[in-house]
Design a protein that fits this description.
This protein is mostly helical. Helices cover 71% and strands 0% of the residues. It has a domain at 335-410. The longest helix has 17 residues, at 389-405. The chain is elongated.
């Protein structure tokens, strides 16, 4: 710092620039944007291309100077015209966004191109997007592939992903699933959990690369271990069903638990089922009720049905027909035919007050309509023998009205 200062005071441009950087970052000296601005200005006047870029950033963000869009554009332009790739890229963004200056697509493309030609990866990626979308200039897939490739080879994950998509679709390049796989893998190998999850989906679906369940599990696992909820849930389902990989209830419980604790209603429901059956975990109705409740409160119809059944039977919770009725009703209103059937049974048996054959008939009728044919029809006919024609007609009207009011179409 001492020697940079002595040299800078004698007009050495490199020393002045380095002093500006150190003052702006607080390296070897207390962070001081005003001092940074002083040294960047001095060196900018000597033709250094990076200094005006830094001044542009300072004026854009109001650090060490009063925020000033015009000054920011002035310094970015000065730096860009001297060939600094970052300034050219920033100037392209400024013209593209039109917030600091009048929006100008041609100027944006011009500066992105200049920056990209200097191998600036972000500019190459952006230029690739521009050619891919064809909004600012004529769409050109070959140019898009060219610039995505340059950016991708420098490690830009977005460019690698887009290049993978284009290779898989044969856009601007001969369709090549191997190349697509190569670029998707490079993206995932950078460690981003979402990218790893996406690669897992690519292998699982087999639409843009050859279907490979082992690879899908590999990348879902990498993503899941970083906390990606979607990957954790997919792994849980795969281990539970055992169709794509060896069934493993303990692994299913492990991954469902992780994602359930993040609030995923489907995982909470699945955990409830596994706890109630003792799959991959000691059978525990209390735990089942806990997870069904969490899921049911988020609107999961299956969880609402199961929770209703637990309150109806007293498994894992204190037996409570009123609570059973509440949860069966919530599930029934989402179209669950079993919940509708269970409500019919409760009203027929008088579990929630006086026996109500009209309501029982109505719910059996609705359940039958929604596919629970054998049981619901049998019980509907049984209840029907206890009702007058007038009451049956009324119960059928109530059924139609209920279905219409719940958008289940007659």
């Amino acid at each position: 710092m001492k020697w940079f200062t002595k040299s800078a005071e004698q007009g050495n441009a490199d020393a002045q620039y380095n002093l500006g950087v150190m003052c702006s970052k607080g390296e070897g000296v207390t962070q001081d944007y005003k001092q940074a601005e002083k040294w960047f200005t001095k060196v900018a006047e000597q033709g250094n291309a990076k200094a005006p870029y830094n001044l542009g950033v300072m004026y854009e963000n109001g650090k060490g100077v009063k925020q000033d869009d015009k000054q920011a554009v002035k310094w970015f332009t000065k730096s860009a015209e001297q060939g600094y790739d970052k300034a050219q890229y920033n100037l392209g963004l400024i013209y593209l966004e039109g917030e600091l200056i009048t929006q100008d697509d041609k100027q944006a493309v011009k500066w992105f191109t200049k920056s990209a030609e200097q191998e600036y990866a972000n500019a190459q990626y952006t230029l690739g997007v521009i050619y891919l979308e064809g909004k600012l200039i004529t769409q050109d897939y070959k140019q898009a592939v060219k610039w995505f490739t340059k950016s991708a080879e420098q490690g830009n994950a977005d460019a690698q992903y887009n290049l993978g998509v284009m290779c898989s679709k044969g856009e601007g390049v001969t369709q090549d699933y191997k190349q697509a796989e190569k670029w998707f893998t490079k993206v995932a190998e950078q460690g981003n959990a979402e990218d790893q999850y996406n690669l897992g989906v690519v292998y699982l679906e087999g639409q843009v690369v050859k279907q490979d369940y082992k690879q899908a599990v590999k990348w879902f696992t990498k993503s899941a271990e970083q906390g990606n909820a979607k990957a954790q849930y997919n792994l849980g389902v795969m281990y539970l069903e055992g169709e794509l990989i060896t069934q493993d209830y303990k692994q299913a419980v492990k991954w469902f638990t992780k994602v359930a604790e993040q609030g995923n209603a489907n995982a909470q429901y699945n955990l409830g089922v596994m706890c109630s059956k003792g799959e991959g975990v000691i059978q525990d109705y209390n735990q089942a009720a806990k997870w069904f409740t969490k899921s049911a409160k988020q609107g999961n119809a299956n969880a609402q049905l199961n929770l209703g059944e637990m309150y109806s039977s007293g498994k894992g919770v204190t037996k409570d027909y009123r609570k059973a009725e509440t949860w069966f009703t919530k599930s029934a209103e989402q179209g669950d035919s079993k919940a509708q059937y269970n409500l019919g049974v409760m009203y027929a048996n008088g579990n929630v007050g006086n026996q109500d054959n009209n309501k029982a008939y109505m719910y059996f009728n609705i359940s039958a309509y929604n596919g629970n044919f054998e049981k619901a029809i049998a019980n509907r006919e049984k209840i029907g023998r206890l009702l007058s024609i007038e009451k049956i007609n009324n119960a059928q009207k109530l059924s139609r009205d209920w279905i219409e009011s719940h958008n289940q179409n007659v």
